[in-house]
Specification:
Largest sheet: 7 strands, parallel
Distance between the termini: 24 Å
Order of helices and strands: EHEHEEHEHEEHEHEHEH
Bound molecules: 2-phosphoglycolic acid
Radius of gyration: 18 Å
Helix content: 25-40%
Number of helices: 8
Shape: globular
Strand content: 15-25%
């Protein structure tokens, strides 16, 4: 894992945006894995700014989102398709037919299972994901892979945990149906991405971040499996990094890495 600790959430977003741009520049037809939630909004704002300034085009990009709620329509304000349209897709020059969110509108389990299997097949058919963006839940989930999810799980139906439902309650009106099921990319699916960049900000993430980076591999903290990925970059603000035992070491590693890249290591 490459652990990068930056002063503010804004710095985290800028770092993530630079990484996304690097991947877009290097590939003729880049495939991005995208996440929803509060954390990546600043990243999407930054990408939209760069697009509006004429510095970035999404024309050749294909995207696959991590997850989608079951039980609300695609055009519901809280669906993840609506989220992505609102914060990114409607604001840039991406071809909407190149954007993918798991098809979760049906209430028929067989159709949902079929759609989930198809999602993994679609990712494989385009040659896999070049860069997967992730957030982390306070319970250590990635996507909606809740604690005790199998490390080799594929895209599938998942029941949300009590803590995830509580965390997402703020987005739904008091008398409104709040989904408790979703289709999520599996952990096995996520691990097949060539590179992974996980963003975490705020002190409420500090405990999950510590378990992910310094804890044992455990399905109780699904994100801990990222320790086994060859190219996982974890970008944190000071607050999210505040419980790390080896925080000073990670900061030192990053300084030394940058010096090496500048030809300045002795
Ligand atoms: P958040 O969610 O960015 O809204 O904190 C992250 C997640 O649950 O994966």
């Amino acid at each position: 894992m490459q652990v990068i600790i930056l002063p503010t959430p804004k710095d985290v977003a800028l770092h993530a945006a630079n990484k996304v741009v690097d991947v877009i520049i290097k590939k003729t037809s880049p495939v991005l894995g995208l996440a929803t939630g509060s954390t990546p909004i600043a990243l999407y704002n930054e990408l939209v700014c760069r697009h509006q300034a004429g510095r970035l085009s999404f024309k050749s990009i294909r995207t696959f989102n991590l997850d989608e709620y079951i039980g609300i329509d695609e055009d519901h304000k809280q669906s993840y398709r609506s989220f992505m349209n609102r914060y990114l897709f409607d604001l840039v020059d991406i071809d909407l037919t190149n954007t993918h969110v798991p098809a979760a509108a049906s209430l028929d389990p067989e159709t949902l299972n079929h759609n989930a299997a198809l999602y993994d097949a679609e990712i494989s058919a385009v040659g896999g994901i070049d860069l997967q963006i992730l957030g982390i839940g306070t319970n250590g989930h990635i996507g909606f892979n809740e604690p005790t999810s199998s490390f080799s799980s594929r895209t599938r139906i998942k029941t949300l945990s009590e803590s995830t439902i509580a965390a997402n309650k703020r987005f739904f009106m008091a008398d409104e149906f709040q989904p408790y099921l979703a289709i999520t990319m599996g952990i096995g699916t996520i691990l097949e991405s060539r590179e992974i960049l996980l963003m975490a900000t705020g002190k409420e993430k500090a405990s999950a971040v510590k378990d992910m980076i310094e804890g044992p591999l455990s399905s109780m903290c699904p994100a801990s499996i990222l320790q086994t990925h060859e190219k996982a970059i974890i970008v944190l603000d000071e607050e999210a990094a505040s419980s790390l035992t080896l925080k000073e070491y990670y900061l030192w590693c990053e300084t030394k890495r940058q010096q090496l890249h500048k030809g300045n290591c002795v």
